[in-house]
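WARN retry 2 of 3 for item q-0093 after timeout on previous attempt; input resubmitted unchanged.
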Amino acid sequence: MTKDIKAQLNKSFDELNLQAKNVEYFEEYIKILLLWNKKINLISKKEENIVQNLIAPSLLFFKHFTLDNYNIIDLGSGSGIPAVVLKIYKPSLNITMVDANYKKTTFLQYICRKLNLDCKIINNTFEAINKNIMQYNITTTRGVNIDTKLLGIIKQNIQSRWLVYFTSPNIHLPLNIQKELRLSLTAMKIYNLL
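OK item q-0093 returned
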């Protein structure tokens, strides 16, 4: 299994034209993710290709954002996709993960500790973010339904310049889209919030 994951990772890096790095961390992350997924619902039990369908689409981020020191907040972090993936690939990123589910934030704390990833993890609802104005360069999210209320929180209280939304290609937000990249069945949509 390990050789297979490593081969899949290297193939994905080649396909994305990104330098393959921290492959061992990605392998460990996937191994732990699958182990924890037996107890708590982090990803679909039917997911057959984690690298191609979850890891590689998250790495699309680096096809557009190239600086080392972005401040990123990830909403609905759950399994750590894309936040943990981004941090593994570029450890210099400043990442905050938010999830309301205690078991999922426990997983995030464990994986960050195990892989020595310095991330801030908040176990709270998006509405709680509403009480604190935070400034980030980028807000990321995957698998979260962005309704009018959440969009308001993102625009007013998080105050980030971009929203990077990992979703299906047919979902669109009423925002100014700057760029859309696709891989497999996932689209990474970059919205300009300014």
